[in-house]
Structure formats: structure tokens, C-alpha cells
Amino acid sequence: MSAPHILVVDDEPDIRELVREILEEEGYQVSVAEDAEAARRARRARRPDLILLDIWMPDTDGISLLKEWSEEGGGLACPVIVMSGHGTVETAVEATRLGAYDFLEKPLSMAKLLLTVERALEAARLRRENVALRRHARPLEEPLGRSPVMQALREQLRRVAQHDAWVLISGEPGSGKELCARYLHAHSPRREGPFVEVGVAALVGENAAVELFGAEEAGGRVRYGLLEQARGGTLFLDEVGDMDLAVQARLFGALESGAFLRVGGTEPVPLDVRIVAATHRDLAEEVRRRRFREDLYYKLNVVPLRVPALREHSEDVPELLAHYVDDFVAREGLGYRRFTVAAQNFLRHYPWPGNVRELKNLVQRLLILGAEPEIDVEEVKAVLGTAPERPRDPVLGPGFELPLREARERFERAYLEHHLRQAGGSVGKAAKAVGLERTHLYRKLKALGLEPRELAARSREGD
Fold first, then answer.
1. What whole-number distance in Å separates Cα of residue 193 and Cα of residue 197?
2. Rounded to the nearest 5°, which phi and psi values hold at 263?
3. For 125-174, what is each residue's pLDDT tens digit?
4. Rounded distance, CA 42 to CA 32, Å?
5. What's the rounded Cα separation, in Å, for the pair 353 and 366?
6. DSSP readout, 87-122?
7. Of the listed ranges 304-308, 341-345, 412-416, 437-441, the one predicted with least confidence
8. Which residues, 6 or more positions from 30, have their beta carbon under 8 angstroms from its beta carbon?
9. From CA 279, how far away is CA 169, in angstroms rounded?
10. What pLDDT score was predicted for residue 390?
11. Measured between alpha carbons, how far is 333 from 22 in angstroms, rounded to an integer?
12. pLDDT digits (tens, 9 = 90+) for 189-204
């Protein structure tokens, strides 16, 4: 993983160069800027991990620059430490209000500067981790199971994690592909960097380019895309087989050249990221059917990993059941219940079309709905239904005569309308239900022409 990149903005050459030398001696990568315009150019050229910003400069003052950056994309993209030799309490308060991590007075104490830089970078790393933990509710764990296939998978993950090669993970929906991707990141040399997850299905049209590559707007404003947000870490492309062909072409160009252009930008941005992609599709077959680019397939498929379906290691079912019972008891405060031997044996022979995700949901349902200390086979059958659900094509139903794009949009519109009505028009609740980031869902709704408030109103009228 590359060292953190720090941008030093100060109009005094002596201070600028002294801070640069000291930071470089500590192993940081450093860029410098003598005024606000040079700082804007430096941010466009490369996304910094931290900015040291002087207040008094000849063109635009540091507070105005801080305000400008804080209004881009809903907040500062990285920690900013403000420096001044003539600062006041009001100035420090204003800098803090705008999101500055700290305020340092000149003449600078280099020991304090280095300590503040270290703490700011650590705080940013912890904030990223906390966001991921809130989304996924639990710290990272390795794939569970003592069966030979799962032991082989864990051993393969450990070996692959040590290298920076790109990985393509295949497996059925719900089998644990994302968990494997997170495990690879957490045990890799890039583990201190960010893990950025991309829901490929939400990338459509021009929005996809902006999401992935970022954008440069009028007035020098920069929006950093997912490729830059993952700098020094891992970019996880979830369900990459669903990616639009136009997006595939742009992504391949970036991966092949090792650099990319932001939308509206003119200067190439270097790529520093490990790519881990996942799919439930047979991408080789998708290539043959011309639905996935052959060059991108071979670019991503440096190290292929296959996650087995749960029915292929059914001997692990009892261990998984016990794990998720303990998990829900500890995390959600549900009452403890144990599966009888007969219930465990029945579930070992169940086909598990939804794999580990289905098992986890089943355990949660049984703990919520039942009160007896034991879960017997009849209760399990009742919850599952008399006939186990078989794997189905995700888009069964009318519309097969339509072009793929139109059929997908029709399904997505109906699917999101349903979840928005269920959520009473709350985009936050709907995003959680469908497994998308709120901002991604907003853009998806806009692209499909859906208005949450109108759907909520129609839903209330129909009640």
C-alpha cells in the first residue's frame, strides 16, 4: 500500500519546504501549493489523504478555501489541519465549524504537527471502518466451516491475500462472496487503506462514469469517484457481471492504462488500488454471448476464486446454525434457542437455494417468532414451507421479448416502487431493505423517474 499523501498549502516558502522535508522523512508522500489556486490544481491532480492549510494567503484565504471544499459532495473529502500565525478564537471556531480536524498556531511545533497528522489520519481510518461496521453490523470474520471445501477455501484466501493480484470471486447469491472479499482486504498489505464497495447494478448511464471516476466542475470543484476513494486500498466490484457494456469499456481503459480521467477533467489521475470483483454469473459464458467484454474478463480474472454453495458443504450446517444463534442473541438481544438433532439433520439435507444468507435469515426468523427453548423439525418445516423453494431465474415473468436494458429497467422500477411503498416513502429504509447506499438509491430513483413522496402518497390513498 502506498504511503498517505499530504498536501501542504502555505504561501511562505521556508515553512512550506520545511514541513515537506519533515513529512517526507516520516515516510509520507507530500505535494505543496503556494496559494489557493495552486491548491485547487493539486487536489484535481491527486486526491490527498490530508491537507495542511494556511489561513492567510495572497489570493483566497484558507477559511474561504475550506468552506469551498466543505460544500463539495456534502463535506470534506479528507482531514484538514488549519495553520496560522495570526489566528483568533473566532477563526479557530469557524475552521472547526467548517470541518477542520484541528487548528495549529505558528511558529509550528514539529513534534505537535507530526502527532496531529498521525491522529488525523488514524481518525479518518477509524471513521471509514465504523461506516463499514454500521453497514454490516459485525466485525469481519472468516468464512465458517470445518468441511474440506471450506478449509481449502480459507487456505486459498490466506495465500491470495498476501499478494496484490486482482481477484475474481464466483459463487451463487448468498454464498459469501463479499465476506471473502473483505477477508482478502483485511489480511492484505493494503489492510490499512479503505475497502470501497461498489454495487455495480446501481451504475447506469453518465451517473456510472461520475460514480467511478469522479468529476471536475466549474470553479475548480472536484468530486472524487470510487476509484480515488479506494486509493491505497481495495475496490470491491459486487456483481460485476451486471455492469453495462459502456461502463465496462471505460473501466477497462482505466485498468489497462493505470490512469483515468474524471468526467470534465483533462489531466489523468493515476490508479493505486487492488480490484476484487464478484459475480454469480458464468462470465466466460457471458463473454461468449457478447454480454461481457473479453478483455475486461481477462483483466479481472488474474486469480479466480470459487465460493462453494452451502449444499456442497452441508456438514457445516450445524456449526453455522450455532454461530448465527449466538450472533443474534448477542447482537440483537433475542432469546436463546437451540436446534434439536432432528432439526439439524433435516436442515443438513435441505437444498439451501439462498445459501448461507438464507440460513442466517431462517435463524433470525425462528428466534423472533418462537418462544420454546428448543427448535424442533416441525417448526423448521412450518417456517420453510412444505416444499423447499427451488432456485429461480431472478427475472422470471413477462418481458422476455424486450431488449435486456428495457426489461431490466422495467423490473428495477417495479422492484424499487414496491420497496418504497413498504418503507412509506422513506429512501433510507428502502436503501437498507434493498442493500444499496442511500446516495446510490437516490441516483437510481432519479434515473428511473421515480419520486418517493408521490409513491408514499399513492400508497396511503390505497390503504
1. 13
2. -65, 125
3. 888 766 655 555 454 478 999 999 999 999 999 999 999 999 999 999 99
4. 8
5. 18
6. --HHHHHHHHHTT-SEEEESSP-HHHHHHHHHHHHH
7. 437-441
8. 5, 6, 7, 8, 19, 20, 23, 24
9. 6
10. 43
11. 51
12. 998 889 999 988 777 7
Can you list the domains of the chain with their CATH numbers?
5-134 (3.40.50.2300), 145-306 (3.40.50.300), 311-384 (1.10.8.60), 404-462 (1.10.10)
Closest listed residue to residue 124, CA positions, set 76, 79, 71: 79
The residues facing 410 across adjacent strands are: none
Count of alpha carbons within 13 angstroms of residue 422, beta-carbon side: 13
Which residue type does 416 have? Answer: L
Residue 426, all three cell numbers: 422513506
In degrees, rounded to 5, the angle at the alpha carbon of residue 108 between the alpha carbons of residues 42 and 6 is 25
Q: What is the mean pLDDT of residues 412-440?
A: 77
When pLDDT is cut at 50, 70 and 90, the band that residue 395 belongs to is very low
| Residue bearing cell 418517493 | 452
C-alpha cell at 123: 481518525
Residues in the chain: 463
- Which amino acid, 373? P
Q: CA–CA separation, 40 vs 242, rounded Å?
A: 36
All residues at 6 or more sequence positions from 448 whose CB lies less than 8 Å from its CB, including other chains: 409, 412, 413, 416
- Answer yes or no: are the C-beta atoms of 51 and 99 closer than 8 Å: no
Q: Which three cell numbers stand for residue 7?
A: 498536501
Using CA atoms, how far apart are residues 337 and 41, in angstroms rounded to an integer? 60
First to last CA, the chain: 55
C-alpha cell at 337: 434457542
